[in-house]
Amino acid sequence: MTLDFITTDVIDRAFAYACEEMGIALRNTAFSPNIKERLDHSCALFDAECRLIAQAEHIPVHLGSLPWGLRRCVEDIDARGGFAPGRMWVINDPYLTGTHLNDVTVIRPIFFQGTLAGFAANKAHHTDVGGAVPGSISADAGDLYAEGLVVPPTLLVEGDRCIDETVALFAANSRAPKARGGDLRAQIAANVTGERRFIGLLERYGRSTVAAAAEDAMARSERRMRAALREFGQGLFEAEDVLEARDGDTFLRLRASLELDDGTARFSYDGTAAQVDYPMNAVFGVTLSGIYYVLRTIVGGDVSMNDGCFRPIQVDVPEGTLLNPRRPAPVGGGNVETSTRNADLVLALLAAARPDRIPAFSGGTMSNVMLGGTRANAESWAFYETIGCGMGARPTLPGIDAIQCHMTNTLNTPVEALERAFPLRVERYEIVEGTGGSGRYSGGCGMVRTLRVTEGEAYVSLLADRHRVPPRGACGGGAGHCGAHALYRDGVRTPLPAKTGLRLRTGDAIEIRTPGGGGYGAC
User: Fold this and answer.
1) Which helix (DSSP H) or strand (DSSP E) does residue 175 occupy?
2) pTM, rounded to two decimals
3) What is the pLDDT of residues 199-214, one digit of tens each?
């Protein structure tokens, strides 16, 4: 069936906004500040063949892994009784869904006139899903099971009614049980919203027209991606970078090659370090996310992100490595820190082909902070956030100060929301001037945020990078400044490692300084 451009575009954009509406429903009904205030969630719609139709402009590391994860989850669910109208399934197993345990995925099959028409799916970062430390992302977890509750595909909704026992399972394994129930129900609301919009399009235009429009949109995105890749020429390009190991003295090497050939891109990660026994491993879905995100940025803003964007891309990652670990390697930090370094690596590959098109390195870390403990009334709590850094300078513009870069797209927790919900006080929150790299265009500056415990005892886990190896500049630009952590106790400031955990008491404060971005061009 052939459609005119206008009809295809109207349906394509309607799908895209349906995903945005899903996100609005999720945000407005969520309980935890991490989802309601920081917007740490992502939504997408798929056809019956598990091909991505549309996604909202949410979290790159979530969205790039959703197509890979959905296909794997559907295979597993088919073996457990399959899909039916009125059902939803919940999963957080990262080796199925493609990120880490905190990212809980909820899938809704969409039926129209008695047959499967597609899927609504969303991910949301739940602040705590159990495990050894509050926030569930420990710098020391030796395997997946130490990171928290592992949930295979499990019924969350049957006959359009929430299964309370499934919600209770999540709540019983969390230090913030009330938030778990509220956030899961918010994810249900998001998928119901997506289903209504999907069915509305089918009712208005008919199934064959909607299917044809989706095919046309995918073909258009594929053509645009191939054209963008051709602009980078042909050839074989190589790059490598390092993550700072947990011990603070050694490094984990990431190495990749990119072969560009007439509108196709083939990535190989031969030479990347073997998986490790702490949570810096990134499951394959996370690795795909970094590649898809970077390549999507070179296409331009007026092309839809759908299955067509992925068709010119091939990825080979040896199993048992940092970017494709074997179960049950711990992966909590791989989703946040290793994913960010992979984005840097892919940008470096493209810069080898077209340095005039690619910015300098950004801060290169999400600077994760996990805090939790017990109030004076014995109530447990858990807090999580990532903190903005300096964006790398661009070929024609300076970088941006204190912003979430690349693989995340969240906000810093507003001070008012943070202090209202948790026994914490924000004592410092500002841009650190002069931390961006020098150059014709300077890199963006990092920031500092200091959190003080005001009640009870707590445990903090810090997971960051770029404390020893600064973000590189481009085309003669200077490197950005490194980040740093510190503990304030009884008036004494003590430096802390990039990846660490420690117990806090009332009055202790944690300082997080984030890196600046690299500069672009010689001064």
Assistant:
1) none
2) 0.96
3) 999 999 999 999 999 9
